[in-house]
Amino acid sequence: MNSRIALTLVAMLAPAALSAQSNQDLQKQIEQLKVELKAVEEKAAAAQEVDTRLVKVETKVAGDNIQWGGELRTRFDSTQEHFKPYNQFMGFMQNTPSASNPYPFAPITQPVGAQDWSNSVQWSTRLRLNMGITINENAKIMGRLVMYKVHGGADVPTFNGSPNTISTSFSAGQTPATDALLVERASLVYHFNSVASILSIGRQNTSDGPPFEVREGGERQATPQALAVNATIDGIGWKFQLDKLGLPEGTLLGFCYGVGYESGFGGGGSVKSNQTIVGMNFTNFDGTNPSAITPVVGNIGHLKDTTVLGAMFDMPLLFQIGESVQSANFYLGYNRMGNMTDIPFGNTINFPIPGQTPSTQYVTATANLGDIDQYTATWKHKIGDTFTYFVSGGYLKSHPNGQVSQYGAYWSFAPGTLTQLSGFGGLMGDPTKSETATAYYAGMRYDPTSTFGVGVEFNHGSPRWWTYTPATGEYTDKLGARGDVWEGYIHWKFAHNAALRIGYIDYKYTTAMSGWQIGPSAQPGQNWESAMNLGNNPVLQYAYPATVKNFYTSLEVRF
After folding, report:
1. Least C-beta-crowded within 10 Å: which of 301, 342, 519, 554?
2. In the chain, what is the greatest distance between 2 CA atoms, to the nearest angstrom?
3. Going from the N-terminus, what domains does the chain have, and what CATH number goes with each?
4. CB atoms closer than 10 angstroms to residue 319
5. Is the model more confident about 185 or about 351?
6. How many Å apart are CA 406 and CA 408, to the nearest integer?
7. Tell me: the pLDDT tens digits for 15-42?
8. If you write DSSP's letter for every residue of 252-309 in order, what string do you get?
């Protein structure tokens, strides 16, 4: 009986015991899972912490790998311009041919007396940020960002007859414009040690070249000579080191190719076929009825890219005369400007198209005018640590193709014909005949102490001189002047990396259209140089200054 009762009790309590054992096992499994989950969470947190540290380290390494530098310049200019009397060209009117004028059209001109213009107060700020990134032992990236703006000035400069008041790609950062940071330089530089050469691809170092570093009191900034090119050029360059051939250390022979105007993209879309207002028709104008003047829409078509193909030779020299250590540099340069256009793509204000209301004007090339060969040579000589002088010369030869610019044009609408009577003209003032031009540039700087320097410079350009330099940081470009320019300055480093510069530039222009690679042709029987001479009451579409006197002071900080 007792046995049956005991068995009955075991049978009744067995499920409860088994249930308790199962609950204990489940609880143990849950606790084990919690431990494992905590371990996973701790590992995830540790991994996140490591990842965060790695990101910080990589960011720091990347930041440390970028070498930054730059300069800030605040400049004050006070300028006076003098304009000699000239005859304002107004168009054409019908004419009865005679012995003195055998043409059916006679020019209409308006005498304009001498004028004096003054801009006594102008402030500007220029910020340059230089950067370099080392990729590996052979490759690096070089760049420069720039902001250059006149205080209170318009984003697009007012057109004053000079090409540096057209906002274009090759003037980016070289002429006052907006307060935006523009890319003036951006290139990949790769050293091929096996063949002792250097390849550069991108926006090249083509501004502020030798011998500008003498005036600036610094190191050489660019490859091409300043008298040849001082603009922003996109392209490719390849330099070969000639040390192994027995030439002095640092001797280079280089070749470059760049694009100055892209005809198929950016220049107003596909400029293979386009139109723009390029002039006014004065054929039916009798001098009294303005409504007889009608605009002319010109066709722009079949343009080719403007290219630059160049070669350069640089040779540094180090020698001793007596007890004085001498250092010198000899530079040679050649550029072939192919398929030159009249005006690159850009914008301006008050573009001189007669009869139109002054406004912001889109401009683009209307024709390829031909090619130009450009030769330059520079000798720079430093005597000891105190005295440096330089002499630079340039020569141009044009190869026109017969085409002329359609801008500023006047037309004759004879039955069934459209004849251009005038305009901004052809290459170097002659669309059919090859012309030449010369220029020279000389200067010296004396530094009696390490903190004080004084210098003087002079440059001269012949009546047809032109150089690929929209501006050089002055009030108006001096190296493109057709005439004589004197500059004197003092440079005082009053603190570490900070300097004050005071200078005076005197421009004396002899010939109209300084800075332009184009020009109107002379009338039949006229000599071009005489017809464009500012002292001969020339017939001009708009005024050109005969003299510019510019006083400036600038505060310069390098970092």
Report:
1. 301
2. 160
3. 55-558 (2.40.160.10)
4. 10
5. 185
6. 6
7. 545 455 566 777 777 777 777 777 766 6
8. EEEEEEEEEE-TTTTSSS-TTEEEEEEEEE-TT--SS-GGG-EEEEEEEES---EEEE
